Amino acid sequence: MTTPRPIKFSFLAREQSEGAGAVVRRSIGTPKLKNFTPFLMLDHFRVPPGAGFPDHPHRGQETITYLLQGGVDHEDFAGNKGTIGPGDLQFMTAGRGIMHAEMPVQSEDINVGMQLWVDLPANLKSCEPRYRDLRAEEIPVAKTDDGKVTVKVISGRSQGVESLKDLAYTPPGGTITQEVPKGWNAFAYTLEGAVTFNGKETITPYHNVVFESDGDVVTAHVEEGADQAARFIMVAGQPLDQPVVQYGPFVTTSKEEVYKALMDFQTSSNGFERAANWESEIGKTMGRVR
């Protein structure tokens, strides 16, 4: 027997300015949903030509970027470089410290995507920074038996397919039941169309839907013959039993560690040695359309 997870609450993610000229719909990391362990922030970003996220530091968390439209360049002080396109992902583990730039490709197109910040367990906050891409073609795809629902299985398991965070895409007229480990925090962020969760509440785009921790499945349904396909991201994570003390891009477990992170960054030490006088090449593309 499985028990559906009730919706705890949902809310509209409103637009705000971020970075240098970018616009984001932030849901996690706002007064409505702050420190939803292990999730720290969720941004649905839209970046026009000439804008971006130039050189900045991180410590103590992992960022996961999923691109919906356009392209995003990445460059960090460890020598990692890369570009992701639609359907690709970028995983960046800040660990003990990293300085990087994320610059949407400066074309005439609007660059659109999602970025999730995930807290690192206390014993991993001092790990060496890591970076890697996951290409769209590498992501296993699962389908429901009737072929009406397609799931890109990025992390975890869905419909018997395993891989590496679950991104679910629901065409008009379909139902999917996704298993969620008991006790894990789970949410869905709606991108397109109208989707009904657990047969009770229909959610429109740009809402973050937070589920109760009781229960072990979430069911999503789109009416047969709906005018538009529904598209949403579903994420679940194991809660971390630790304090969250965050100051901008520095995420620690105490105020003392935050002060130390600031001092380490300012003095280019204890993880930030390579930040001294470092400048990304892609950060210099600000304001240039190519």
Automatic annotation (TrEMBL):
<dbReference type="InterPro" id="IPR014710">
    <property type="entry name" value="RmlC-like_jellyroll"/>
</dbReference>
<dbReference type="Pfam" id="PF02678">
    <property type="entry name" value="Pirin"/>
</dbReference>
<comment type="similarity">
    <text>Belongs to the pirin family.</text>
</comment>
<feature type="domain" description="Pirin C-terminal">
    <location>
        <begin position="171"/>
        <end position="270"/>
    </location>
</feature>
<dbReference type="InterPro" id="IPR008778">
    <property type="entry name" value="Pirin_C_dom"/>
</dbReference>
<dbReference type="InterPro" id="IPR011051">
    <property type="entry name" value="RmlC_Cupin_sf"/>
</dbReference>
<dbReference type="InterPro" id="IPR012093">
    <property type="entry name" value="Pirin"/>
</dbReference>
<dbReference type="Pfam" id="PF05726">
    <property type="entry name" value="Pirin_C"/>
</dbReference>
<dbReference type="InterPro" id="IPR003829">
    <property type="entry name" value="Pirin_N_dom"/>
</dbReference>
<feature type="domain" description="Pirin N-terminal">
    <location>
        <begin position="24"/>
        <end position="118"/>
    </location>
</feature>
<protein>
    <submittedName>
        <fullName>RNA pol II transcription cofactor</fullName>
    </submittedName>
</protein>
